Amino acid sequence: MSASLILFIILAYFALLMLIARLTSRHNKANSFFDGDRSSPWFLVAFGMIGSGISAVSLVSIPGNVGNNNLYYFQFILGTIVGYLFIAFVLMPIYYKLKLVSIYTYLNIRFGNVTYKTGSLFFLVSQSFGAALRLLLSVKILQYAFFDGLHVPYFLTIIIVLMLIWLYTNKSGIKTIVWTDALQSLFLITVMIVSIITIKSSLGLSFAGMIAAIVHHPYAKLFDWDAHSGSNFFKQFISGVLITVALVGLDQSMMQKTLTINNVSGAKRNVLTFSFFIAGAQTLFLGLGVLLYLFAERHGIHLSAKNGQFMDTDGLYPFLTLNYFGKIGAVAFFIGVVASTFASIDACIAALTTAFSYDFMNIESKSPTDKNKIKNAVLLGVNGAMFIIVMAFWSSEGAIINTIFKIAGYTYGPILGIYLTGLFSDIRLKEKWVPLACIGAATITLFLNLLFMAQFQFDLGFMNILVNALLTILFLTVIKRKTNAA
């Protein structure tokens, strides 16, 4: 694929996003950046959240990871559906009843200011790393496919991507993102379908033959019952439930779009519809992963491995697409990468800006002029943080999706523990100890995971979020206030 064609795709796609940004920025209000004027159609939000939920990480990590972990990620997908039910029927009514913009305001109402700031701070740390790692993978693909050929250094590529996102989101924020994410979801689904059809045709398979090839492939194992394995069914399923509640239901970037819907019924429909959209899309990505390895086997393509594990699994899909799938496949994939880059990062940046502005800068009480100044300053700081984290992790290897979920287990675990304590108990807290309780829970979880691996070869896997949340609940119970002091 020529450099001029790639440049045209980037510019044309960006021009389309700018057009949407211009159309949605008309009649803006002071809070449009943060709440989208609470006027978004629920189905549009649900469809658009596919783009945020998939990202470039899912686009390449889920298919690539099949080579080392079979289809065990499907166990996690099953758990996510239960998690979305909890979000729809437990969290949504609370958020709408309290008319929240930053969802962490609930913690202020339920416990107090220190707990509120602690929850928001853990979100800021986790979301910063999660968004930066998604951006890292996207930029690596763009660098490999295009910018290396122009001898553009990777740090400049990072800056270019962040600047493009800033240009179309800085005016209307979440109001624009709801619409651009829907467009980007459409492109992502198209890319997946084009890739599957391309591989099917290349292997000379009918549709039924393709399904049979996937089902009978050695990697087509859905369930792992080994108790010591990090991909054990119960660990994956429970983690799917908890990580979904934490990374979606307690995540400002995902909930902020849902809260732009004007009523709780629409918000519930949005969450339930999105849950089946994303579960279906991720299952298709697993099937695509089997096809990618089958394609490599049939064409005698050597894939580097070490100690029985494939190396650089995130690079498999880009490598095959750009070198073996022809111009149509390459163009479709590149559009998908560009779409997933913008779709997953823009909402995260808007959410980080919203959380910091509301939770730490008290923007709600400011004048419209001051709100705009604060928003722009925070937005600049968020972009700077993204740049620093991506630079720090640039040399990392392996499946980035695993790294994201492991980090999330340590940073979202305390948030999950605080929320569960607030929702299912009536205790009040000695708030000055809350930050220490949360940090202690995360630290002990990390220590336990290292200890179990060293002594028993037992990997907590994504279950670290459960251990972390339970420890947080335990510590919060220890620091509860007596009833007569409430």
UniProtKB/TrEMBL annotation:
One of its GO terms (biological process) is sodium ion transport. The keyword Transferase does not apply. Keywords: Cell membrane, Ion transport, Membrane, Sodium, Sodium transport, Transmembrane, Transmembrane helix, Transport. The keyword S-adenosyl-L-methionine does not apply. The chain crosses the membrane at residues 6-23, 43-66, 72-98, 119-137, 149-168, 188-213, 233-250, 271-296, 328-356, 377-394, 400-421, 433-454, 460-479. It is a multi-pass membrane protein. One of its GO terms (cellular component) is plasma membrane. One of its GO terms (molecular function) is symporter activity. It is found in: Cell membrane. Belongs to the sodium:solute symporter (SSF) (TC 2.A.21) family. This is Sodium:solute symporter. It comes from Mucilaginibacter ginsenosidivorans.
